């Protein structure tokens, strides 16, 4: 069957007659065949909204006819899931949505006392089984690979390996050796270089003064005649 064409016909019926249960049923089956679980969830969401909000005016108005359509939907759903089991773990998000929509339909049918006769529990159990199976599957990339040591660690002559083998429970102690650094030449205690010319200048000045004072005294000392003359005036 050309499910693409069935889907197109359902959309045309929607445009002319509006959404009704029979058209929603075939649209759900067609979408499930063309796009898989995502299409199935679209159809189930449409049927859930239709039965929840338009139950009193939804066509067909007869409850028995509605029950036949819903039961036929669940039977086809089971057959399709058996033929195309969603075994891929990537389908888990879609399966969760399918479970949610089926639970919503189950609650709606229970309010109208149609849950048991609609056999909604069968597709619910099938979807839950797929979810449980895929949740228990290991995720790709989660299997831990053995640790591969570098080639140096596998050598028996490596010093670190020998040390750890002889002392398996020893702790590593890091000793920081402090060496006294010698002060740089500029910081050593030595007389400043600028004091040397200053000291030499002071010594030269003292020497000059020691020579100049006796000379000055000699030059300024009066002669014997001047001394005799001076003493004669005082007397």
Automatic annotation (TrEMBL):
The chain crosses the membrane at residues 198-219. Pfam families: ImpA_N. The keyword Phosphoprotein does not apply. The keyword Phosphoprotein does not apply. Residues 2-72 form the ImpA N-terminal domain. InterPro entries: ImpA_N. Keywords: Membrane, Transmembrane, Transmembrane helix. This is ImpA N-terminal domain-containing protein. It comes from Escherichia coli. The gene is S14.
């Amino acid at each position: 069957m050309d499910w693409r064409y069935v889907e197109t016909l359902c959309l045309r019926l929607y445009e002319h007659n509006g959404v009704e249960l029979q058209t929603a049923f075939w649209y759900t089956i067609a979408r499930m065949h063309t796009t898989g679980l995502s299409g199935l969830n679209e159809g189930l969401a449409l049927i859930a909204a239709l039965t929840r909000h338009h139950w009193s005016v939804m066509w067909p108005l007869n409850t028995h006819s509605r029950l036949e359509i819903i039961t036929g939907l669940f039977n086809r759903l089971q057959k399709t899931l058996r033929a195309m089991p969603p075994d891929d773990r990537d389908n888990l998000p879609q399966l969760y949505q399918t479970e949610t929509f089926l639970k919503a339909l189950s609650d709606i049918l229970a309010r109208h006392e149609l849950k048991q006769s609609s056999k909604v529990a069968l597709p619910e159990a099938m979807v839950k089984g797929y979810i449980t199976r895929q949740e228990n599957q290991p995720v790709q990339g989660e299997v831990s690979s053995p640790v591969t040591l570098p080639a140096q660690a596998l050598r028996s002559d490596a010093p670190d390996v020998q040390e750890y083998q002889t002392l398996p429970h020893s702790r590593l102690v890091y000793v920081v050796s402090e060496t006294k650094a010698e002060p740089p030449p500029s910081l050593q205690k030595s007389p400043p270089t600028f004091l040397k010319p200053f000291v030499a200048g002071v010594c030269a000045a003292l020497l000059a003064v020691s020579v100049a004072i006796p000379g000055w005294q000699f030059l300024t000392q009066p002669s014997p005649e001047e001394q005799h003359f001076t003493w004669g005036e005082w007397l």
